[in-house]
Design goal:
Layout: E1 4-7, E2 12-16, H1 23-39, E3 44-49, E4 53-58, H2 65-72, E5 86-94, H3 103-110, H4 114-122, E6 126-131, E7 138-141, E8 156-159, E9 163-167, E10 170-173, E11 178-180, E12 183-187, E13 208-214, H5 216-227, E14 234-238
Parallel strand pairs: 5-13
Antiparallel strand pairs: 1-2, 2-4, 3-4, 5-14, 6-7, 6-13, 7-10, 8-11, 9-10, 9-12
């Protein structure tokens, strides 16, 4: 699909690479994001990566959509620029009891056992495609095909913070209580979004995530450490 330049109001230019959730498209989005951030174009306020496009917000008093399009166009074919640092996060998850209200139903719908669902989910290294919906809410793929399910027919009015969810080809973590229609298969005690951190959102687009199962006692212990600000989520730099 040909790259398209679209307007989003009078303060944003959208560079659209395709029409699907795809790792190759994500890499193109993230590479362009890194190039733009490293070039410090005058007038750019913020860049926001999505599944298939990059939104470039700008100050219309300093630049224009036409000027940005002329500057960005020649960058699209560059392959000599790495997209920047990324982290692999190790996220503790309790897949038990009240934390996993939909696990049994997911197992029934997929023809798996609950243990097999957990093994598939925790055995996958996920790619953070984008943040959205709520502050710090990560859309992560790619879910094993065996776990692919449509959204719930009856969305919940209240999904607890920390809930681990799946729908279609994606998994996500709710950073705060909100309505939601995804299947809830576990919960993590860590904070996905904290305004007091230098970087309030824990993950960034392009990061990788692995989940590891913990029991309820460990969940309670980690949650207490999180509340005391003595818990650090394990992470390591990854090559990209």
């Amino acid at each position: 699909m040909k790259v398209r330049f679209l307007s989003a109001g009078d303060r944003a230019l959208v560079v659209e690479f395709g029409d699907r959730v795809d790792r190759a498209l994500s890499e193109r989005v993230l590479r362009l994001d890194a190039i733009i951030r490293s070039n410090l174009f005058a007038g750019i306020v913020e860049t926001v990566p999505t599944f298939r496009s990059l939104a470039v917000y700008f100050d219309p008093l300093l630049t224009s959509r036409a000027e940005l399009q002329r500057a960005i166009g020649p960058l699209l074919g560059r392959r000599d620029h790495r997209r920047g640092a990324a982290s692999l996060w190790q996220v503790p998850v309790c897949y038990e009891g009240e934390f996993a209200p939909d696990l049994a139903e997911v197992a029934r719908l997929t023809g798996l056992t609950p243990d097999e669902v957990v093994a598939l989910h925790s055995g996958t290294r996920f790619h953070v495609y984008m943040l959205g919906f709520l502050p710090g809410f990560p859309y992560m793929g790619d879910l094993p095909a065996e776990l692919a399910l449509p959204r719930r027919a009856d969305p919940r009015l209240r999904v607890p913070a920390g809930s681990i969810s799946i729908a279609t080809s994606l998994t996500a973590i709710y950073p705060c209580e909100s309505p939601g229609g995804w299947h809830l298969i576990g919960a993590t005690p860590i904070r996905m979004f904290d305004p007091e951190r230098t970087e309030p959102a824990l993950f960034a687009p392009g990061d990788a995530v692995r989940f590891h199962a913990i029991d309820m006692a460990a969940f309670v212990s980690i949650r207490q450490a999180v509340e005391n600000r003595s818990y650090k989520v394990e992470s390591e730099p990854v090559a990209i």
